[in-house]
Amino acid sequence: AHEVDRTTDLKDLVDPSVRDINFMSDKDEEIRKTDIPERLQERMRMRGTSKMPNDDELFTEAKWINRNCFDDQLDLKVVKRVLNLMKKEYLEIPVIANTRREYCDIPESELWKIDQWDEKWDRMYFRRSKLRSLAEREKHNELIEHINTTASPTELNDVHEYMVTLSAPHQHAMKIPRRIQIV
């Protein structure tokens, strides 16, 4: 009879491909232990920070979303409240729509738009931070302030292309992940 060591973890006994299919990996366990919706955890990981945004950052993002998504037609306070509920209280859109209606009296479709644009903002935030660190490494100090004030993915692409032309002799140092599409 084959006796199993009591210290052996169950995941060590299961084939790795089966473990991944059945959500038994270390990453899956970490997601289960964290009391935040998985979708929001992934977004936080993409953003590269687990700290909550402060009020100024939320206000800046709310202005950006209101301008780009709603043509400044929505109350800025409502957009900021929704972002606060999503980013600080880690609530999903259906929960906000059904249980926090008194904080943001807008249709659920508008809440989903805010969520979509929040994801675009986070992608832009990630790309901006990568470009900023690249500009610092390449000593393009004149671009750092411009990177901090870029308001669109197109502007970020323009800054990246400009940095590539400045660093053409050592282009290998200019690699920035292109798989992050900001649409």
Question: Can you describe what's shown?
Answer:
It contains 10 helices and no strands. With 183 residues, it is an all-alpha fold.
Which terms would index this structure?
flat; single chain; 183 residues; mainly alpha
What is the string of helix and strand elements? HHHHHHHHHH
Helix coverage percent: 55-70%
The oligomeric state of the chains shown is single chain
Main sheet?
Answer: none
Which spans of ≥5 residues are poorly predicted at pLDDT below 50? none
Radius of gyration: 21 Å
Secondary structure: number of strands: 0
Strand residues, percent: under 5%
Q: Treating each run of at least 4 consecutive H or I residues as one helix, how many helices?
A: 10
Termini separation comes to 60 Å
Q: What structural class do you assign from the helix and strand content?
A: mainly alpha
Mean pLDDT: 80
Shape from CA axes? flat
Briefly characterize the structure.
By secondary structure, this protein is mainly α. The protein has helices spanning 10-13, 16-21, 26-33, 38-47, 55-70, 76-87, 93-99, 108-137, 141-148, 153-166.
